[in-house]
Design a protein that fits this description.
CATH topology: Tetracycline Repressor, domain 2
Strand content: under 5%
Number of domains: 1
Helix content: over 70%
CATH superfamily: UbiA prenyltransferase
Number of strands: 0
Largest sheet: none
Shape: globular
Amino acid sequence: MERVSAAPRAFVGHLRETAEMIKIEHTVFALPFAAIALVTAAGRSWPAPRVWLWVLVAMVAARTAAMTFNRLADHRIDAANPRTSGRALPAGRLGRPFAWAVTSLSVATLVLAAGMLNRTCLLLSPVAVAVLLGYSFAKRFTTWSHLWLGLSLGMAPAGAWLAVTGRLAPAPLVLGAAVTLWVAGFDIIYSLQDQAFDRANGLFSAPARLGVGRALWLARGAHLLALAGFLVFAAAAGGGVLRAAAVVAAAGLLVWQHRLVAPRDLSRVNAAFFTTNGILSILMCVLFVLAKLTAGP
C-alpha cells in the first residue's frame, strides 16, 4: 500500500522538478509577444481558437525542449558552478534518461503543433528546433551567445504571425528583432553573476570578455535598440495612445531594470532579470490587446 501511495508522490515530485528545470515561469518572457503578434496579424478579426491553442502548445513545447536540452548540455558546467550545482540534474534529483525523454517528446510536440497550424510552420519547424537547441553550445565559442538566446525568443512573434497568415511580413520581423535585443540585454545582466566562473572555465559571455561595466553599457545599447523596434512595430500595428503607452511603459521598466544593477552592486540582478522583464512583457501585451479591443470598426 505504501508503494502505491508513494507512486503519485514521486510523479508529482518529478513534475515539480521538471517545472523547475525548465523554469516554466520564464515562459512569461516570450508568450505575451507571441500573443501581440497573433492579434496584430489577424487585422480587424481575431485568430481562431485552434490557432491560439496550437501556438500555445508550440510555445510551451519549444521552451521545454530548449531548457531541458540546455540542462543536459550544461550538466557538467552546472555541477561545477556553485550557483547552479543545486539544480535537478547535477544534484541527482532527475536523471539524464528522463531529461532526454522530455526533450524528445517536446521536440515532437513542437513539430506536431507546427503541422497543425499550417504547412509553412511545419516546413520551418526544423529551423526553429536547430536555433533552440543550438543555443546550448553557443557560450562555448562566441561572446554573442546572448543574441542567440534572444533569437530563440525573438522567433516567437514571427512564428505566431506565420500561424495566422502563413507568410512573414516586415512588422513581425521588426518585433522579433526588438524581442531579440531585449532578451540579449537582460541576459547580459543575468550573466553578470557568472562572470568569474565563465572566465575561469573558458566560457564566452559579454561580462567575462568585457568586464561588468562595459557589459552593462552593451546591455543598455541593446535595450535602446529594442525600444526603437517596439516603437516601429507599434506604429506598424496601427499606432494610437495605448500602443504608444506600451512602449513608454517598456522604456520606464528598462530604466528601472538598469537602475537596479550597478558594477559594484549585483545583489538585485534577479529582480532586474525576472520582475521587470516579466512585468514589461505582460503589460505590453495587455495594452496591445486593449488597443485592438477599443479600435473603431
